[in-house]
């Protein structure tokens, strides 16, 4: 009976350690995935901001050109 209890306790310990390792591994994977997703989102935000800035510069240049053309026509 003692051997059965000791064997059961040993198995329970092995399972709990394995379970903790799996949980730790899953946690690490989740953290890595979150970091990667955050990095990707940040890169996309930078790209979107850059595109928006370039479009604003283009629009401003077009407005200046249109204003100059209007002034030239008025003279």
Helix content: over 70%
Number of domains: 1
Q: Which whole number gives the mean pLDDT?
A: 83
How much of the residues is beta strand, in percent?
Answer: under 5%
**Count, helices:** 1
- Major β-sheet, in short? none
Q: If you compute it from the alpha carbons, what radius of gyration comes out, rounded to the nearest whole angstrom?
A: 32 Å
SSE order in H/E notation?
A: H
Low-confidence stretches: none
Distance between the termini: 110 Å
Shape, please? Answer: rod-shaped
* Class computed from helices, strands and strand pairing: mainly alpha
Q: Tally of extended strands?
A: 0
Oligomer: single chain
Give structural notes.
With 75 residues, the protein is an all-alpha fold. It has one domain (1-75). It contains 1 helix and no strands. The protein has one helix at 2-74. The relative contact order is 0.05.
């Amino acid at each position: 009976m003692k051997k059965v209890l000791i064997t059961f306790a040993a198995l329970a310990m092995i399972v709990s350690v394995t379970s903790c390792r799996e949980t730790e591994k899953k946690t690490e994977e989740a953290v890595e995935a979150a970091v990667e997703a955050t990095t990707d989102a940040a890169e996309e935000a930078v790209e979107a901001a850059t595109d928006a800035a370039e479009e604003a510069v283009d629009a401003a240049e077009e407005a200046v050109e249109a204003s100059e053309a209007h002034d030239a026509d008025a003279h």
